[in-house]
Write a structure and sequence with these properties.
single chain, alpha+beta, five-stranded antiparallel β-sheet, 5 strands, 57% helix
Amino acid sequence: MLDAAIIMVIGFVIWLVLHQLIARVVKRAQNGTPLTQNSYFKWAHPVLRTLETERRVQRAETIGSLLNSVVSVGVVVVVGFYVLLAFEFNVAPLLTSIGILGIAIGFGCQQLIRDFLAGIFITIEDQYGIGDIIETSDVVGVVESVGLRITRVRANDGAIWYLRNGEILRVGNRSQGNYVDPEADTEPDDDAGTEGERRPVLQEAGE
């Protein structure tokens, strides 16, 4: 009983320390602190580069929430197994059952896992963010929110589209690079119009 209590206390301390560390990193990222100046974070320069405030805050909150969830699940699982071992419980059948259950859940939630993984990479790679104008195979509009599973886009006609991240196979970001509206090049030329109006007059004069 004492061993189990000690394990739970140690697990809680580890969980608390990791959450505090994640909170500090997220806060610094939200405030635009140049983490890349620290030698420990130079490898993450593409991810931690300074962005617009709204996008930077959103990305920091999304990544922080994901890390907190992973830490919580990991600590609970590890502490739970050590507590069972402290009570001399045979965990071998339990591990086998969890493995089978995990496989079943994996097959049943393939699309959900795919959406989550796609949302993580969209956020980390900064493919697009709030306020960007994007073009997919389904819709062209302004991004209003980017979640781990769903991206919400307001189309040009005002309709709200909810796009599952795992189904966005190709996306163009018009807010990045030097996008030029092709309709801007199709405006009628005044000189061409004037020349076209002169031709009938010249033909009548020739006749």
